[in-house]
Each structure stands twice: as C-alpha cells, then as structure tokens.
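Narrative of accomplishments. A recurring question from our advisory board has been how the design workflow behaves on a single, concrete structure rather than in aggregate. To address it, we present the structure tokens for one chain from the evaluation set, followed by the sequence designed for it. No filtering or post-editing was applied between the two.
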C-alpha cells in the first residue's frame, strides 16, 4: 500500500489567534523582531516528517540546512519560494490564511497530499483544507479555543477535585481586590488566558505594581474591553514538567511521554525526558489516572488530538497535575520525536535554544562549517553532538535590510538545537557551543 502524503505546517503563535480581541491585555512591549523569529519557527516541524511528506514554511528553508538534514536521514519536500511577504510579516496572520489567499507554488506542491498535520488548529485551517481538497479530520475551532483557555484548565481542576491554587477575575477592581489578599501571603502571578512561554504572565511582588496593572486594565475597560485573567500565588516549585498525550477521534488516550521543562523567569527554555524515578513517583501519587480524567473531560467538550498538559511538583512534594493545557503540538512533543529518532544506550535529546545578537548578515552554511570541524555538529558518524533544528529563526532578522529594523546594529536571532548526549555531558556540549558562537561573533543573551 502506498503511504499517504502528509503536509506539515503551522503558526507557533497559535494563542494569538485563539485570543478574543475584545479582552483587555496585560502591559507588554511590542517586539517585531521577536514576531519574525516566531514566524520562522515552523521549520521545527520537519521532526514530524516521514519520507516523501511536505513541509510548508513561511520562509524557504536554506539550502545548507536542507542538505545537512538530508545527510542525517530526513527526506521531505518543501517550498522553494517565500509563502510570506514583507507586508504580511508586519501583521498577525496565520500561515493558513496566507495559503488560502495566495501562493501558486503551494497549489502545485499540495497536489497529492492526503493528510494534514497542523501544529495547531487556528482560524483558516479548515478553509485551507477545503481550498486544497485535503480532508479535515480534527475537532472544531470552538473546541480547540475552549481547550486552550486557562479558564477551562482552571475549571477542569475544580470540577475534578484536583489540587488548584488559582482564581479567575473578571474586572480590574476584582483583580486588585483579589490580588491584595493573595499578596498578603507572598508574590503572585497574573496570567492572560492565552499567554504562552512567559508572555502574558506577570509576577507581582508589591501593592504599587498591582495597582498600576489595575489602572492599565481599567483604562481598557473604559474603552469597552473585558477583563478575564487568572491569579495564582507564586509557588515554590521543585520540578516543572509536562505530559504529552494524544486523544484519538474515538476517545482512546495514548500516553506519549513525560518531559521536564527547563524554564527561566517563567519563560520556556528547554525540554528533556523525565527520569524514570520521577515517573515512578508520579505513578504512585495517581498522576496518570488524573491525566486520563483530564483527557476524558477534554473529549467530552469536543476536543481530540495532541495535548500537552503542564504540571509541577512543589518543594513540599505535592504535585499540581494541571497548571495549563496546550491542545496542540508542543516543544515537549518535538523533543519526544527527537528521542524516538536518536536516543539509544543512554543518549537523550535536550531540546533548547540560544537567544543571540549579531550584526548580520549571516550565512547559515558558514556556521555549520565552523561547528562541524570543531567536532560539535551531530552527524551519522557519531552518536553524540549538536543537532540544529532551525536556520531561519536564527537568521531572519540578521539578513533583513537595515531600514526595517531599529537603529541598533545588533540584531536578534534564536538558534534552536538538540544536544544529543548522555545527560551528565550536556553542560560540556553547551559550553563548547556557546564558546563557538562567541568566537563566530555572536553576543549571547541566554
């Protein structure tokens, strides 16, 4: 039987498309360079591609990166021309809306595609499938939006009697009132219902800061915006981890794995497989039964597909089974793919990134030409090394014409990669990589 051809694509800022535009927002600085990096992250989806599949990315994959991936066993089709344009880059537009409205090359590439593997279902996904005659086999957009809201994850924890510390607030005055009570016991976190990876979350340690945030929201309420936020005490955390599951269309639950999350100041910074003894501890406290209950709850609400459930263990040993739910693919799932492909004899993948600055421009092939002779680059000849996972996220700002960027000569990039090594060797590999980047002229921000 001939294997069905799958198209892989998606927008990594899915939360922005799920969020109700009528909701008031927490204070945040605009970051156009950061948006470009997120738009370029769709290259990471090559990890789910089988031989002959199609990967569509906003910006064409660089030849040096494609050649490298081919050398280590990845064979897939991809677009040679940009799907995005400079005009679209300046707007919040999903890749599905782009493809529904343009891109003649995509029409040719999508001929023969029978399945779709989206990073997340967002507005435009079903329209994309209809335009290109690809069967859509997924939950409704309404079910996806509901499953991803922190309001529903909070309510699920309440309904299922799970350990839960947060409360929902529906106005600026309620935020200040409830926040003052929480501050009496220590710092708190205010969370946007669709915030992700440190964005849309604020740690509050003083009454003055809380009142400033309240005033910021009150000004938006006067303009007709609604407030809906989650307040949680800032808890002493021992272990931050996630559970990757897949809910089948008929409701069966498939456990894929457990990933430790390595975070820095609330922002995601990496994933690695959870140790066996930690998984055993979770088994003993009934964690997997709770995950089945959560999956059943999501399914009753109409959702099925990939799910990443963020959890944590507190310093006192208690496990908080649901911090938030990501009803989509996730960084933990990408690291799961890496372990399935490359883990052996104690070798594990550590999925992470470097945030960097560089004056640009930059040829990615030149970077590979530095890492390989230095013995850092993962190849089929060696079992360990640094496996680059994206080129465009690193170079998208570095190679932009200068008028589109700020006056600063230093341009932001992000280098996603996996360290394939024994866990105890990770820091050695990471230090060598950081040294190589600095020698190449990068400034390291993380």
């Amino acid at each position: 039987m001939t294997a069905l051809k799958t198209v892989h694509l998606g927008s990594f800022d899915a939360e922005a498309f799920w969020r109700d535009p009528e909701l008031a927002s927490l204070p945040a600085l605009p970051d156009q360079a950061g948006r470009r990096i997120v738009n370029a992250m769709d290259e990471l989806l090559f990890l789910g591609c089988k031989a002959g599949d199609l990967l569509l990315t906003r910006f064409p994959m660089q030849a040096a990166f494609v050649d490298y991936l081919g050398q280590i066993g990845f064979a897939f089709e991809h677009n040679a021309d940009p799907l995005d344009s400079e005009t679209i880059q300046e707007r919040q537009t999903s890749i599905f809306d782009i493809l529904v409205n343009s891109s003649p090359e995509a029409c040719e590439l999508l001929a023969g595609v029978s399945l779709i593997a989206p990073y997340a279902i967002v507005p435009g996904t079903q329209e994309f499938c209809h335009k290109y005659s690809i069967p859509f086999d997924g939950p409704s957009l309404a079910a996806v939006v509901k499953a991803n809201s922190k309001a529903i994850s909070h309510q699920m924890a309440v309904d299922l009697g799970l350990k839960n510390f947060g409360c929902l607030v529906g106005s600026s005055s309620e935020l200040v009132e409830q926040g003052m009570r929480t501050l009496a016991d220590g710092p708190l976190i205010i969370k946007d219902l669709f915030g992700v990876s440190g964005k849309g979350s604020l740690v509050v340690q003083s009454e003055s800061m809380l009142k400033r945030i309240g005033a910021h929201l009150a000004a938006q309420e006067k303009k007709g915006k609604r407030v809906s936020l989650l307040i949680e005490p800032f808890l002493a955390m021992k272990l931050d981890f996630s559970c990757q599951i897949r809910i089948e269309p008929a409701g069966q639950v498939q456990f894929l794995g457990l990933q430790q999350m390595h975070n820095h100041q609330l922002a995601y910074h990496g994933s690695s497989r959870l140790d066996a003894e930690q998984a055993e501890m979770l088994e003993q406290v009934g964690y997997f039964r709770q995950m089945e209950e959560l999956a059943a709850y999501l399914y009753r609400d109409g959702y099925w597909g990939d799910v990443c459930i963020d959890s944590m263990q507190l310093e006192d040993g208690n496990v908080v089974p649901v911090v938030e739910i990501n009803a989509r693919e996730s960084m933990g799932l990408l690291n799961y793919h890496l372990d399935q492909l490359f883990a052996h004899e104690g070798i594990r993948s550590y999925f992470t990134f470097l945030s960097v600055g560089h004056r640009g421009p930059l040829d990615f092939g030149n970077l590979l030409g530095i890492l390989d002779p230095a013995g850092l680059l993962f190849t089929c000849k060696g079992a360990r090394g640094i496996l680059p996972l994206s080129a465009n996220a690193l170079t998208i700002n570095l190679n932009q014409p200068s008028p589109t960027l700020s006056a600063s000569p230093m341009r932001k990039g992000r280098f996603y990669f996996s360290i394939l090594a024994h866990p105890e060797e990770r820091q050695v590999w990471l230090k060598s990589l950081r040294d190589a980047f600095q020698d190449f002229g990068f400034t390291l921000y993380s």
